[in-house]
Amino acid sequence: MMRGLREGSARSLRRGGFTVMEVMVAIFLFALILMMIYSTWRLIFQSSQAAIRSTTDSQRARMAMRTVEDALASATMFASNPRLYFFQADTAGQFAAVSFAADLSDSFPNSGMFGGERIRRVSFYVPPGGNDLVLEQNSLLADFESGGEPASIVLAREVQLFQLEFWDGQQRDFVEEWLSTNQLPVIVRVTLGFGVSKGSREPAQIVSRVVRLPTVAVPREAQGVIGGAP
C-alpha cells in the first residue's frame, strides 16, 4: 500500500511540473514581450528626440533670422565717410555674405564686448567648407592690424542656404547683386534654409523675410565722433 502511495505521488509530481518544451516556449514568449516593449519604447524615444530636434532647430532658425533682420534694420551709412561705412554683399553661390555698419541695440548678441560702442561693423557669412551661419562684429574704432580680433558667434548650424536679394526700384523687382557699396539698399529679402529633406537636395526648412533699411545716409553735419573717424 505504501508503495502504491509513493508511486501515485511521483506521478502527481511529474504531472504538476513543466517539460523542457514548455519552459522554452515560456522563455520565448517572455523574450517576445520584452522585445515588443523595447521596440515601443525605442519608437517613442526616437519620436520624442525628433520632436525636440525639430523644435530646437525651428527656434534656432527664428533666432538667426531675427538677428539678421535686427542688424539690417539698424544699418547705418555716414555720407562723409563711406570708407568705414560701406555696404558690401557677395551673393555668389548658395551662401551669401554681407558686411555693413549698424547702430545696434544693447540686446544685440555680443554687445557687452564692445563697452557701449553701439555703431559696429557686422558681417554674416558661412565659412568655406562649413554650414554654420556666423555673425562677426568689429569695432569701427579698433586697429585690427595691431592684432585685434573680431567677436564671432555661430547663429545657426546645418545651414543649407543663405540668400540675399535687393530691391531694384527701376526694375521693380528683387535682384541678386548690390554693387553700390556707398549706398544702402532700400529693401533686402533674406532667405535661410536649414537641414536636408529625405530624398531631396532641398533644405528641410526655409525661412524668408523682407527687411526695410534706413534710406537716408546721416549727413556730415550730424555726425559724431564715430561717424567722423578717419
Structural class: alpha+beta
Helical content, roughly? Answer: 25-40%
Count of distinct strands:
9
Q: What spatial order of strands do you see in the largest sheet?
A: 1-2-3-4-5
Which spans have pLDDT < 50 for at least 5 consecutive residues?
225-230
How far apart lie the N and C ends?
122 Å
Q: How many distinct domains?
A: 1
Q: How many helices in DSSP terms?
A: 2
Q: What fraction strand?
A: 25-35%
The topology string of helices and strands comes to HHEEEEEEEEE
Overall mean pLDDT score?
81
Largest sheet: 5 strands, antiparallel
Query: How does the overall form come out from the CA principal axes?
Result: elongated
Gyration radius from CA atoms, angstroms: 33 Å
Q: What are the key terms here?
A:
230 residues, alpha+beta, 5-stranded antiparallel sheet, 4-stranded antiparallel sheet, 2 helices, elongated, disordered C terminus
Task: Summarize this structure briefly.
By secondary structure, this protein is α+β, with helices and mostly antiparallel strands. It has two helices and nine strands; from the N terminus they run H-H-E-E-E-E-E-E-E-E-E. The longest helix has 54 residues.
